[in-house]
């Protein structure tokens, strides 16, 4: 009885699902299908794409060619919507990707920028690396639905950035690294308000940065490293408060590192090394960026002493302050506060005085490079040499018996043995009374050292 009652309902369900099925899978627009073949041929004409994939490309396509069907609302409004291409991925064939591989004479087909009205992602990885391929002048109408533009390691793809940047209202990721792009960053970039990532590293981009970059409030990642950018970094970039990573390494930036960077409160990675920043010292704002994990300033003429800014930086893992013209002592507070530090590079400066005894607090340290300074005294005997401790080029430094006999002396250079009478380091050279109050462990360990030395 119960079953009989269900029959009409079941029939209805079956009919409905048939309707829905046939409705959900309209064929790919024939013009788009033809354009896909042409684009595939210009990427690699040695593969017979048309005979390998003769049917509707939304039913059977090479990996990397991605279709989407119109949403139900589109369909009920238009009724005649077709399927469309939403992603095209090409390039390097490896065990990890089976995207259509590019041949040596691959070209960038202009149809890419005219035929696919619904394209959301364009991806070319290690595709253009032979004869020179110029960026076509991309039409103004291109890319209203583009969300990701990814061109990676295409050294022979050349052209000005202004040739490809259009009004990509929906663009979230612009990843164009290792190509032959030149020219300035166009002001227009400040209109692409959806951008969360800009990676333009390893091109030949030049000129000053447009202030309009500061409009991009959603930006989390800005990587302009290894280009020829010059001038000062706009103070307004301090407005990019969502930034997690800022990489400007290896350019020709001059002037002062903007103090407005203190507003980048979420920043975890900052690399400004290998530039021409002037004699303004290590920026104090670093001490106000609580989530900082890595900071690299090496090879700038910043000068000055290492400031006492480490109190709130327990999260810092890596510090690169090589070749900055630093003078004065290494602050003992670095050893005391930077409990998560794994790499410290202070080499090729003019630092003097002792290696702070407090460095023995650095439980997670893997490498300390202090080469080519003017440090003096003994190496704290309580400090374990882990992966690497590089000390060569400090004429005043000496090795005590423990380190002298250690097997793990790699990188210690030809340090002379300490003269026992003269050079026993102070057990507690960091005179932080308040610190001792708040940190019983510090007190305990310091007492331990005092005890050891007394017993000796
Ligand atoms: C690429 O070179 C091959 C020969 O090596 C040639 O047959 C093919 O037509 C060329 N393709 C393009 C797009 O120029
Ligand atoms: C749907 O059909 C209408 C009327 O024939 C036409 O104007 C419109 O361009 C079509 N839409 C698509 C996406 O083909
Ligand atoms: C470009 O080609 C050269 C020579 O075949 C190769 O060594 C190099 O790794 C290639 N570069 C990229 C980015 O694929
Ligand atoms: C951006 O920062 C600059 C200088 O730091 C400031 O004067 C300006 O008001 C800020 N602009 C916006 C839109 O927040
Ligand atoms: C130190 O590193 C550990 C392990 O990576 C992490 O769990 C911890 O949160 C870090 N401490 C700070 C203060 O960031
Ligand atoms: C190295 O430091 C000593 C004092 O410890 C000083 O007398 C000497 O001038 C310094 N040498 C250089 C090259 O700075």
From TrEMBL:
InterPro entries: Leu-rich_rpt (IPR001611), Leu-rich_rpt_typical-subtyp (IPR003591), LRR_dom_sf (IPR032675), StomDev_PlantInt_Reg (IPR052941). Its main location: membrane. GO terms for cellular component: plasma membrane. It comes from the Eukaryota. Residues 1-24 form the signal peptide. It is found in: Cell membrane. It holds the Pfam family LRR_1. Keywords: Cell membrane, Glycoprotein, Leucine-rich repeat, Membrane, Repeat, Signal. This is Piriformospora indica-insensitive protein 2. It comes from Acacia crassicarpa.
């Amino acid at each position: 009885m119960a079953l009989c009652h269900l029959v009409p309902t079941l029939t209805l369900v079956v009919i409905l699902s048939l309707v829905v099925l046939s409705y959900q899978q309209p064929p790919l627009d024939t013009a788009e299908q033809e354009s896909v073949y042409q684009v595939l041929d210009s990427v690699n004409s040695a593969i017979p794409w048309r005979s390998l994939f003769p049917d509707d490309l939304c039913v059977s396509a090479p990996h990397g060619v991605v279709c989407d069907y119109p949403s139900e609302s589109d369909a009920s409004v238009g009724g005649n919507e077709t399927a469309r291409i939403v992603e095209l991925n090409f390039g390097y064939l490896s065990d990890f990707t089976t995207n259509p591989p590019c041949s040596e004479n691959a070209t960038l087909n202009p149809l890419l920028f005219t035929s696919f009205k619904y394209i959301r992602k364009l991806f070319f990885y290690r595709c253009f690396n032979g004869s020179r391929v110029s960026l076509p002048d991309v039409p103004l109408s291109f890319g209203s639905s583009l969300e990701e533009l990814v061109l990676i390691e295409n050294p022979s793809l050349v052209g000005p950035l202004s040739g490809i940047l259009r009004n990509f209202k929906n663009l979230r990721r612009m990843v164009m690294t290792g190509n032959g792009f030149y020219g300035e960053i166009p002001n227009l970039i400040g209109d692409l308000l959806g951008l969360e990532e800009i990676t333009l590293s390893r091109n030949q981009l030049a000129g000053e940065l447009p202030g309009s970059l500061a409009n991009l409030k959603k930006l989390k990642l800005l990587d302009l490293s290894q280009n020829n950018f010059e001038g000062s970094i706009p103070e307004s970039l301090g407005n990019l408060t969502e930034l997690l990573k800022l990489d400007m390494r290896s350019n020709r930036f001059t002037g002062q590192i903007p103090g407005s960077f203190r507003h980048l409160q979420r920043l975890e990675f900052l690399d400004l090394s290998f530039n021409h920043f002037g004699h303004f010292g290590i920026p104090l704002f670093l001490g106000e960026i609580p989530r900082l994990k890595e900071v690299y300033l090496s090879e700038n003429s910043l000068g000055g002493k290492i400031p006492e800014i480490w109190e709130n930086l327990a999260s810092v893992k890596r510090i690169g302050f090589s070749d900055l013209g630093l003078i004065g002592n290494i602050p003992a507070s670095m050893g005391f506060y930077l409990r998560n530090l794994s790499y410290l590079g202070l080499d090729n400066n003019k630092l003097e005085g002792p290696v702070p005894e407090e460095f023995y607090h650095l439980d997670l340290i893997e490498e300390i490079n202090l080469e080519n300074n003017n440090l003096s005294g003994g190496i704290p005997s309580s400090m374990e040499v882990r992966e690497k401790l590089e000390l060569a080029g400090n004429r005043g430094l000496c090795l005590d018996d423990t380190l002298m006999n250690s097997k793990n002396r790699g990188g210690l250079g030809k340090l002379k043995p300490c003269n026992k009478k003269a050079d026993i380091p102070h057990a507690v050279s960091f005179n932080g009374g308040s610190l001792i109050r708040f940190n019983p462990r510090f007190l305990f360990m310091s007492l331990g050292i005092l005890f050891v030395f007394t017993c000796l």
